[in-house]
Amino acid sequence: MDTPDTSIGFGELGLSPAIAQAVQALGYESPTAIQSQCIPHLLAGRDLLGQAQTGTGKTAAFALPLLSRIDPDLRRPQVLVLAPTRELALQVAEAFQQYASHLQGFNVLPIYGGQSYGLQLTQLKRNPQVIVGTPGRVMDHIRRGTLSMESIRTLVLDEADEMLNMGFAEDIDWIFDQAPEKRQVALFSATMPPAIRKVAQERLVDPIEVRIAADSETVDTIDQHHCVVTRFHKLDTLTRILELEPFDGMLVFVRTKNQTTELADKLKAHGFAAEPLNGDMNQEMRERTVDRIKQGQLDILVATDVAARGLDVERISHVVNYDIPTDPSAYVHRIGRTGRAGRTGRAILLVEPRERGLLKAIERTIRRRVPPMDPPSAAALSESRIDRFIAEVQKTMAEQDLDFFYRLLARIGQEQEIEMMDVAASLAYLYQRERPLNVKEDPPRPARREWSEKRPERGRRGEGQDDRPPRRERGQGRTGNENLVSYRIEVGYQHGVSPREIVGAIANESGLEGRFIGRIEIQDDHSIVDLPDGMPHEVFNHLKRVYVRGQALRISSAAEGGQSRASWEPRKESGAPRFGRGGQDRSKPARQPGGFRRQGGEGGGSRKPFQAKDSKGVRGDRAPGRKPRD
Q1: The CATH number of domain 484-595 is 3.30.70.100
Q2: What does the alpha-carbon distance between residue 119 and residue 395 come to, in Å, rounded to a whole number?
Q3: What is the mean pLDDT of the chain?
């Protein structure tokens, strides 16, 4: 069983300085198992056959070493990554761009079916060093002579088993035949059926084989649950859990060092005894913090995976995964901080709607279901606070000398002619101003697909229905819903925005399923977007602060802008598409306000935008036997 080697960091893997700098800026502390095992071999130029499940960090496992070997001065394609779907191609391309943020002169280009050839041709003329594409469109460009394979040094097949399941075997063979004879090949697959073994035998030369086995070992004494919650309601959900869960000591896991400090500060502001535990702390500070929780001076530690390594504190009865781990094996290590030595423990996993795919990967890894739990309700929180208030009153009456206060209240009653019940009610109100006893609002439940409507019923496949979303027409959303409201966002053509980026940002940040987004009209300095009526106030406020192409959306009602709908004419001279099918941006850690979000995981394979693939990674909109389209 392969496990992450947490004794080494990214700085010890031999990455180039520019790539190592980007990794550090992203806050990554240590490589996952597949990263630590793949990066050295790919840096050395070896062919590699990697088997790993979704969510193990395999994109970084090949992107980081290949970027370290890129020649930024050579303005020709040097790396070709083949992906089964346009969504995965976009995701991988965005990851490359993120990891190469400090690499001067670098360009990456995703190419896939459904996008304008003209736009792709223009971008190909810029000679990007990395091409990420679906097999069909890559073949088209090679045949047209618009994509040269002469300088390709490395070929990567990502999710190879899915590509073969979708019928791309002949396409992949043809692309291999066009590549230089001397090239590096990296093949990644979640499973290793005979067809994948055959490709490896025929196309890889003396490959290194890396297999990240599923870790099915879980601690039986740990009670595990998950709670689906939107990103900007995670803190509220966590504080409610802290109030309602009877715990002794708690370990809260986040992804980065900065988040440990930020979350610990927020918890302290809510009155909880919390401190961060991260890799920036020296040994003395770490030991002092751990001693404080052992002695009961602290109740909560907010930690990263690396900082919690080897932590064994008997008081830790609960582990909360505030950020879901991208490596399923890390989940096992995290929850193992409780329930040790036969003790009972409880683990709670907060899952953003877009992260359901990672939850599925964890469940496959541990070979058991992590049952759901509802976010703590306002009614339950109110009842808990009232019970504590009554208990404090009773304890005070039993333990304290209250003679002075009896005389004081009697004086208030006589002089002010106020009933004692009125005095008591006023004092109770003053007591609870910081933390109200009567909690009135629940966090939004991320179950709906639209602000005010349930997702419409769909017929079964194979009954003559076209499962593709209808084409967007002027003033009409994808569902044909007429109950739409126009909004203005402050990003337009001059910022280089595309409809796909607008749809991706709004869907990712609001949780609204992409097919409910209506008309998009892009102007020079702003855009008009039609969205379902009834947008929650908190979602509206959050979208104001969302950035696209470096611009804050600053969303506002189009009616408030004083413009009539008739005056919103799309720009005609640029040749850019006026309406877009949309896409998704999964490389960004998204926030899920409002809680209305599609399911999805790494790869996302579907022809329909924002439709998650099934557990086998097969695109849900393709009937068996149909020829796949990229």
Answers
A1: no
A2: 73
A3: 76
